[in-house]
Specification:
Blueprint lengths: L1 E3 L21 E3 L5 E2 L17 H16 L2 H11 L6 E2 L1 H7 L15 H15 L4 H9 L73 H11 L6 H9 L3 H4 L10 H19 L8 H15 L4 E2 L1
Parallel strand pairs: 1-2
Antiparallel strand pairs: 2-3, 4-5
Helix pairs in contact: 4-5, 4-9, 5-7, 5-10, 6-7, 7-9
The protein binds 1,2,3,4,5,6-hexahydroxy-cyclohexane and fe (ii) ion (2 copies).
Main location: cytoplasm
Pathway: Polyol metabolism; myo-inositol degradation into D-glucuronate; D-glucuronate from myo-inositol: step 1/1
GO molecular function: inositol oxygenase activity; iron ion binding
């Protein structure tokens, strides 16, 4: 059986159902990319409740993340990192640096980060051969995880990875492990805990502060280094971990028209980001010249980080 995924769409469930043992079925994305039956550990993708060793550490990750991501914290991080005074590196050098990094929030990934970047990019490239900006967006979408590296300040996991969400307004129920927000200082602050909080209807996501992490950081780096990527590419980078929006449809009241357009690309991108996590290795040396040509097209040779 072949299930075609309609795109783009809002899904209300937080995890994707995959076939039970023995049931043969596959999900086929737009251009024929086949979604694996299960993640590397034999579970549904993004199943945050399944009993496993990994589940416990992922839940603990979200507990600390939800307690510490506050308006004050995000403001401090933005101020610190917009200086871009840490290091000077090319995009590719940064991809290689990612290999030293482990993401403790991810229940699905068991490969080095560079594999994940290339698997995502190559899967999209097959299905959308003419959108070279989307191939490059995929290659760099998780590069901000270098924040975990000593030369970038060695931030703790909870300040770098995991799903993101707005701060400064109420935390939505659809956010993974949302029960831990009760211990966040902003949770009981009347300025921050209403539906709109410090924002207004349709204000545009650009004006909304997201929890600090690799998405926002990479957006900052790309923008300040004057990338020529289109706005949809920057949107994908900035909100790819915002599952409450792109999967559950929460916080739509903060979007403007441009966000709604860009969201369509994010929903396409997300399928590849999530389901290309597999054991199938990409031959890095073989694909490197292609990605290097895209880097040359859209970025300066060296970037300030
Ligand atoms: O655990 C994962 C991982 O950190 C991804 O890079 C991020 O984009 C996802 O939103 C998150 O769930
Ligand atoms: Fe990510
Ligand atoms: Fe990713």
């Amino acid at each position: 059986m072949t299930i075609i995924v309609d795109q783009p769409q809002f899904e209300n469930e937080d995890k994707v159902q995959i076939p039970k043992n023995g049931e043969k079925s596959e999900l086929v994305l737009d251009g024929g990319f086949c979604v694996p039956d299960a993640n590397t550990f034999g579970h549904n993708f993004r199943d945050y409740d399944v009993e496993s060793e990994r589940q416990k550490s992922v839940e603990d990750f979200y507990r600390v993340n939800h307690i510490n991501q506050t308006v004050d914290f995000v403001k401090r991080m933005r101020h610190e990192y917009e200086k871009l005074d840490k290091v000077e590196l090319s995009i590719w050098e940064c991809c290689e640096l990612l290999n030293e990094i482990v993401d403790e929030s991810d229940p699905d990934l068991d490969e080095p980060q560079i594999e994940h970047l290339l698997q995502t990019a190559e899967a999209i490239r097959t299905d959308y051969p003419n959108q070279d900006w989307l191939h490059l967006t995929a290659l760099i979408h998780d590069l901000g995880k270098v924040l975990l590296h000593p030369s970038f300040g060695e931030l703790p996991q909870w300040a770098v990875v995991g799903d993101t969400f707005p701060v400064g307004c109420a935390f939505d129920k659809s956010i993974v492990h949302n029960k831990y927000f009760v211990d966040n200082p902003d949770y009981n602050n009347p300025i921050y805990n209403s539906k709109h909080g410090i924002y207004s209807q349709g204000c545009g996501l650009e004006n909304v502060m997201m929890s600090w992490g690799h998405d926002d950081y990479m957006y900052l780096v790309a923008k300040e280094n004057r990338t020529t990527l289109p706005s949809a590419g920057l949107f994908v980078i900035t909100y790819h971990s915002f599952y409450a929006l792109h999967r559950s449809g929460a916080y739509k009241h903060l979007m403007n028209e441009e966000d709604a357009e860009n969201l369509k690309w994010l929903q396409i991108f997300n399928k590849y980001d999530l389901y290309s996590k597999s054991k199938v290795r990409v031959d890095v040396e073989k694909v490197k010249p292609y990605y290097q040509s895209l880097i040359n097209k859209y970025f300066p040779a060296k970037l300030k980080w």
